[in-house]
Amino acid sequence: MSLAWAFWTYYFLGMRMLKRQIAVQTTFGDYTLTETLGEGGAGRVYGGVDESGNAIALKLLINVTTDKRRRFRNETAFLAKNTHRNIVSVIDYGMGTDAHLKGPFYVMHRYTSSLRERMSPSVNPAQIVALFSQMLDGVEAAHMLGQRIET
């Protein structure tokens, strides 16, 4: 499991099923979204499956501004060219034009647990150090790629 994904999903709690599934099609794949995994200030994350039944997560840019679009474009470009095992990778992206999914989005593999679950009180402190070490490896890899992390 990518720890960057786990760290990212740590903030997204409260999954809920969609009232109706959302079908998404790109040049490279077909996806069916079935639940909302969470929402932040700039994005909403959906869960679903690809045409082979593999679990995916789709991040949609919401409340679009010029600055948010620029940051989202940088995030997508970085994650698309990333190959480090501790940083989530974009497997597809596109522009939603449906009323239920409007705006730029990217698709990534979905993992079965979050950092919150991995860091439960029953985890040995030595394992916590190992998890953070993996996250720092991912941060180091991002810096080695020359990417600026924008806040």
UniProtKB/TrEMBL annotation:
Residues 31-151 form the Protein kinase domain. Pfam families: Pkinase. GO terms for molecular function: ATP binding; protein kinase activity. It comes from the Bacteria. Coiled coil: none annotated. This is Protein kinase domain-containing protein.
